[in-house]
Specification:
The complex is a heterodimer of chains A (378) and B (236). The longest helix of chain A has 34 residues, at 298-331. Chain A is built from 13 helices and twelve strands. In chain A, 44% of the residues are buried. In chain A, strand 7 (161-164) and strand 8 form a beta hairpin. Chain A is α+β, with helices and mostly antiparallel strands. In chain A, helix 1 packs across helix 11 (298-331). The radius of gyration of chain B is 17 Å and the shape is globular. In chain B, 34% of the residues lie in helices and 28% in strands. Chain B is α/β, with parallel strands linked by helices. The chains are: A alpha+beta (378), B alpha/beta (236). Chains A and B meet through helix 1, helix 10 and helix 13 of A and helix 1, helix 2, strand 6 and helix 3 of B.
């Protein structure tokens, strides 16, 4: 049987249906807002490092001052050979990136982001292929694109043709889910073709992807590389990931905007719940005064109010979680998907609880001022 | 007559602050003993409600001594006063003050629940039967008449076996018939259960139920009659 104080709490809550619905909608609104903002933040964090995450490199050699993966500075081919001469370096594969114009057969153009890598052995090659193979990119002019950009690139299947920098290209492989947060489509090609599409000299590259020999210490190899290549930067994958994230999230203000949105959602939600719980408590103030007059302890009354707040939190969170999961599904294939992890869901549940408890405290402060003699005056 | 349940000795109470400060009680002495029903009567502003509040541990006196079952209440904090109320005092209010979202049974159970008592349901049904509402245990206050609501309030006041029942104008919102029924109940509770019942009232129709009638005016007790004296006065 439900304890009486809990029954009193939920009956107080459900007694005024309209106020109850307003409370729950308020909580749902604020939690969905926080969830979407945080989900966008997590999605953005993942998107900006997707190339680094899918690269097999232990170390990245890059021009000094590179801010992120998309930074189009260049390295000299001689630096690759100096890297290969370092003990413990098994591979130093060139990676070429850069912007180019994709010309459709009709003559219209659209910008694309070229990613060119060695197609055999060590390199950053397209993944999640749904049509064609990586080997198909060995054919002259062959490229791989993501199926989500078919319409933008005027392509409807493998075998479609277009032009990049006046060179004919043919789509021979198709990926699924490799989307760019910049909305500029990625186009994968062999490293030599990528150089010619982006106008980069044959002896240049954007990065050298280093694979450390088995048994060699990555830190030691990096120290030697730094000694051998003092004019470039050598970062581990984790360091490069963090640098890219920091640049896009905080260097551009995108992260701050997402955080501000989440914070705003939290504040608005808390205010709505505080206002509703406060006015609900105020409506029931004479009942709390009666409870006090018949000898209830303060703790008993606080439990009633806190239970009311927790019930609101649980119901509001369930509604918000349902709506958020729909948003996650709807944005899964978009340029910036909303990503919700189990840990984030748990954190949001705690946040909802904190929001409602904070509201309960405001209501409790009101109740603490009750004079039980007021019940005698009416 | 049983031993004293509540004693007030030379009780003084100031209310308000600054220019609005007034002396509501000016040295009141009063005892409530088990088994008696005392009517506290007086004009508006005479200090009845203030005295009831102090005797019921809803507030403490400015000076003087109040003892509940021998325990002084001066200097007790609000939580300690609440503990005395839940263990020794049952309240009945003019406007009933029932919880509209709870059934009659749950309203009565509340008095036991705040005491942390178990087996509340059976006890609540027993007292509701005692006040003639055995058939209304599942009814909500809005489904009950005024007289029935006041009887639920009486059940709530007595279910915890409080030694003192303090009633503030319990018949004030009732018609003559329901007022008589409520007072019959309260008199029976005082007589049969040896509880002290103090009733603040303006209603002269309930004088016959009193063991003792105390008159208060301008913060002072100005007269006291026994029930039989009062009956003589009311019949003459």
């Amino acid at each position: 049987m439900m304890p009486l104080k809990f029954r009193l709490a939920y009956r107080n809550l459900f007694h005024d249906r309209i106020r109850f619905i307003a409370t729950i909608v308020g909580i749902i609104f604020s939690i969905v807002l926080v969830t979407v903002q945080m989900g966008l933040y997590v999605g953005f964090r993942r998107m900006v490092t997707t190339m680094i995450d899918h690269s097999p490199a232990d170390l990245w050699i890059m021009p000094a001052g590179t801010k992120c993966f998309e930074d189009p500075s260049l390295l000299d081919g001689r630096q690759r050979f100096r890297a290969l001469a370092v003990d413990g370096v098994a591979e130093a594969a060139p990676l070429v990136i850069g912007y180019a114009q994709w010309r459709l057969p009709g003559g219209t153009t659209t910008p694309v982001f070229i990613v060119g890598s060695e197609l055999q052995g060590f390199g950053l090659r397209p993944w999640s292929l749904v049509k064609g193979r990586v080997d198909d990119l060995s054919i002259p002019g062959a490229v791989a694109i993501d199926q989500s950009y078919f319409e933008r690139l005027g392509v409807n299947a493998t075998g479609a043709n277009a032009e990049i920098r006046d060179q004919k290209v043919e789509v021979t492989a198709v990926t699924k889910g490799i989307r760019s947060f910049t909305t500029t489509p990625y186009v994968f090609a062999g490293v030599d073709r990528a150089r010619s599409y982006t106008g980069i000299s044959p002896n240049k590259a954007s990065y050298f992807l280093v694979r450390v020999s088995p048994g060699s210490d990555i830190g030691n190899v990096r120290r030697q590389l730094r000694e051998s290549l003092p004019d470039v930067e050598i970062l581990t994958a984790a360091e490069f990931r963090n640098r890219s994230r920091n640049f896009w999230l905080f260097g551009t203000g995108a992260g701050a905007a997402l955080f501000a949105g989440a914070l705003l959602g939290f504040i608005v939600g808390t205010v709505i719940v505080v206002q509703t719980l406060y006015s609900s408590t105020k409506d029931h103030l004479s009942e709390f005064a009666t409870l006090r007059a018949i000898g209830s302890s303060g703790a008993y009354i606080y439990l009633v109010i806190i239970w009311q707040a927790l019930l609101s939190a649980i119901l509001g969170f369930c509604g918000a979680a349902s709506i958020s999961s729909i948003v996650v599904k709807m944005t899964a294939d978009s340029a910036l998907p909303v990503v919700i992890t189990p840990a984030m869901m748990f954190a949001l549940f705690l946040l909802t609880g904190v929001m409602c408890i904070a509201s309960a405290i405001v209501a409790i402060v009101q109740v603490m001022r009750i004079d039980p003699t007021t019940v005698l005056a009416r | 007559m049983s031993e004293s349940v509540i004693d007030a000795v030379d009780v003084v109470k100031f209310l308000g602050h600054g220019a609005g400060r007034v002396q509501a009680l000016k040295g009141v002495n009063l005892s409530l003993r088990g088994g008696e029903l005392v009517l506290l009567m007086g004009p508006s502003g005479s200090g009845k409600t203030t005295l009831l509040s102090i005797l019921g541990c809803l507030m403490t006196p400015t000076s003087g001594v109040v003892r509940v079952r021998g325990r002084p209440i001066a200097d007790l904090d609000p939580e300690a006063l609440a503990m005395i109320r839940r263990n020794h005092i049952g309240f009945i209010f003019q406007s009933y003050h029932l919880f509209p979202t709870l059934t009659a049974e749950d309203n009565v159970r509340l008095a036991l629940d705040v005491r942390g008592e178990r087996s509340q349901r059976e006890a609540a049904r027993d007292v509701l039967g005692m006040v003639g509402l055995a058939h209304k245990t599942k009814a909500f206050p809005r489904e009950l008449s005024g007289g029935e609501q006041q009887r639920v309030a009486i059940a709530r006041a007595i279910v915890g076996k409080a030694s003192a029942i303090l009633a503030d104008e319990p018949t004030g919102a009732l018609d003559a018939q329901n007022g008589q029924a409520v007072m019959t109940l309260l008199a029976g509770i005082a007589r049969d259960q040896s509880r002290g019942v103090l009733v603040v009232t303006h209603d002269p129709r309930i004088l016959p139920f009193a063991s003792r009638i105390v008159h208060i005016e301008d913060g002072r007790i100005v007269g006291e009659k026994t029930g039989s004296e009062a009956k003589k006065v009311s019949t003459s």
